[in-house]
Design brief:
This protein is α/β, with parallel strands linked by helices and 396 residues long. Helices cover 41% and strands 17% of the residues. The longest helix has 33 residues. The chain is elongated and about 85 Å long. Keywords: Hydrolase, Membrane, Metal-binding, Transmembrane, Transmembrane helix.
Length: 396
């Protein structure tokens, strides 16, 4: 059903683009060639969506890259054409009807205006070129931002129950790395290098690491073993970890890389006789694999007099965290919206798009993620690696 709906939407988008950029702007053989090109691009996009699911993820890059780039370009082309629709309609009303005059002008007088069909064609071509230029510009900018180095955000977070011994404790938070047909080992190596340069006390990888199996992407994820932090690196599942076949196989692989996987459980982080609890809960998508989130298990035995930090992939899980007195939840999932104007849709589904917010007595921090999913574009939502500096409520 999902692919049927998606396929129908993509077909309608291509049909609209064909009408505005091909049918309205070309004639004869040029129209035939342009129509064939658009059909080929539709087939390429379908292949980009299907091939990685039925063939080796890494081997499908040759079709995924051009297909997903066209996906992004198509989206902004449709958006630009829709924005221009009111202008086009207003200008078309000012063009006289396509009817030959009853009596033409005298032979010795030049016509005042070009024929109406020429003016309509000029208007259609101007709109198509304008929309195309806007779409290409946005796609180029978005691709450069998505494929460039993530921003390193340094965020102070005050926690009333944090012991003064942890003043300045740094947690590097990264999410949504999305290794797959478009992002591989070099992407992981850069993220690991950037995290290590911040010299964190603890690393939190909050889900959506991979879009493929261990056999396909184990080598791409292997640089995670080089993460360096004083208290270790920790991982919780995201929804995509449950879309890749054997989730447990990936969790065993991450454990081999030195990541501590928190599956509805917690551990104590100690320093100088003081401590706080670090808990991790499974993603809500785990319910489809008999591996659902269990907040009671994840927070069992935590000290109610000290701070608790919870790793949970989706911000929406903060409601359960707030019910149980969690001090700080670290999440990802939203990508910050990734491609404007999807920001507005994500805000309807999640309590926070990105950054630090408050839900009752629980603070929620959402990273925009270090990778991308689908089109390799980020517009209005640059990727980030966040370094949270914990502070007690009162300076020491």
């Amino acid at each position: 059903m999902f692919f049927l709906v998606l396929g129908s939407i993509l077909a309608l988008m291509h049909l609209y683009v064909w009408k505005r950029t091909v049918k309205d702007t070309t004639r004869g053989r040029a129209r035939l060639l342009a129509s064939g090109l658009l059909v080929a691009l539709l087939l390429l996009l379908i292949a980009a969506l299907v091939v990685p699911r039925v063939a080796d993820v890494t081997a499908s890059r040759w079709v995924a890259w051009p297909g997903y780039l066209w996906f992004g370009l198509l989206f902004y082309l449709v958006l630009a054409l829709l924005v221009l629709e009111p202008v086009r309609l207003i200008l078309r009303r000012r063009i006289p009807a396509d009817e030959p005059p009853v009596d033409g002008p005298p032979a010795d007088e030049p016509p005042v205006d070009p024929p109406a069909p020429d003016r309509r064609l000029f208007l259609a071509r101007t709109a198509a070129v304008t929309a195309g230029a806007a779409a290409v510009g946005l796609t180029g900018f978005g691709a450069a931002r998505a494929l460039g180095a993530p921003d390193v955000l340094r965020v102070p977070v005050r926690m009333p129950r944090l012991h003064p011994a942890f003043d300045g404790f740094r947690i590097a938070v990264v999410s949504d790395i999305h290794l797959g047909p478009l992002l591989g080992r070099a992407h992981t190596e850069r993220i690991v290098r950037m995290i290590n340069e911040t010299e964190p006390d603890l690393v939190a990888v909050v889900g959506d690491l991979v879009d493929g199996t261990v056999e396909e992407l184990g080598s791409a994820a292997e640089p995670l073993k080089d993460l360096v932090s004083r208290e270790g690196s920790f991982f919780v599942t995201g929804n995509h970890e449950y879309f890749v076949g054997d989730t447990a196989e990936w969790l065993r692989e991450l454990d081999r890389f030195g990541l501590n996987v928190l599956r509805n459980e917690n551990t104590r982080i100690s320093r100088g006789g003081a401590a706080f609890d670090l808990a991790g809960v499974n993603d809500v998508a785990g319910a489809s694999r008999s591996d659902p989130p269990d907040f009671d298990a994840a927070l069992a035995g935590v000290d109610p007099t000290s701070a608790t930090v919870l790793l949970a992939h989706q911000p929406i899980q903060v409601a359960d965290a707030a019910d149980r007195g969690v001090d700080l939840q670290l999440s990802g999932h939203t990508h910050g919206g990734q491609m404007w104007p999807f920001h507005y849709l994500v805000e309807l589904a999640q309590p926070s798009l990105g950054g630090l917010s408050q839900v009752r007595d629980t603070q929620l921090y959402v990273t925009r993620g270090a990778g991308f999913w689908g089109p390799p574009l980020r517009i209005g939502a640059p990727p980030d690696i966040s370094v949270l500096s914990l502070k007690p409520a009162i300076d020491v």
